[in-house]
Amino acid sequence: EVLLVESGGGSVQAGGSLRLSCTSSTYISCIYDMSWYRQAPGKEHEFVSLIDSKGRTSYADSVKDRFTIYRGNAKIRVYLQMNNLEPEDTAMYSCHLSCTDGSYKAWGQGTQVTVSS
């Protein structure tokens, strides 16, 4: 089982920045994509960003041009750089790993991001 651990969440004022990290020390043999999702209280679970095994990225329209996803060099590691944060970005952010052959998926526990106006 792959254990994903997120960090980097916190409380910031609107316009501020945070960098979320998602790491795992577990070895996994498949080719995998990694993504970030978020869920605000009373709202649906929402896709934020994805980076595939080839480094191609995609973003939700609401975060495009403000957030950047990228992989780290070591093992399973992905980052989400969040700039110009807005109160609407307040949510629990979780990372997700998905093997491209469909053999395995994993979720982290999440890290809370709170943006005040």
Give an account of the 3D structure.
- The protein is mainly β and 117 residues long.
- 0% of the residues lie in helices and 52% in strands.
- The chain has no helices and 11 strands.
- It has strands spanning 5-7, 10-13, 18-24, 32-39, 46-51, 57-59, 67-71, 76-82, 91-99, 105-107, 111-116.
- The strands form 2 sheets. Strands 2, 4, 5, 6, 9, 10 and 11 form a 7-stranded mixed beta sheet that branches. A 4-stranded antiparallel beta sheet has the order 1-3-8-7, with no helix packed on it.
- The N and C termini lie far apart (40 Å).
Tags for this model:
mainly beta; four-stranded antiparallel sheet
Present the secondary structure layout.
Layout: E1 5-7, E2 10-13, E3 18-24, E4 32-39, E5 46-51, E6 57-59, E7 67-71, E8 76-82, E9 91-99, E10 105-107, E11 111-116
Q: Return the average pLDDT rounded to an integer.
A: 94
> Low-confidence parts, pLDDT < 50 over ≥5 residues?
none
Number of helices: 0
Structural class: mainly beta
- Overall helicity: under 10%
Cα-based radius of gyration, to the nearest Å: 14 Å
How many β-strand stretches?
A: 11
Please tell me what the overall shape is.
globular
Distance between the ends: 40 Å
Strand and helix order: EEEEEEEEEEE
Major sheet, described briefly? 7 strands, mixed
Percentage of residues in DSSP E strands: over 45%
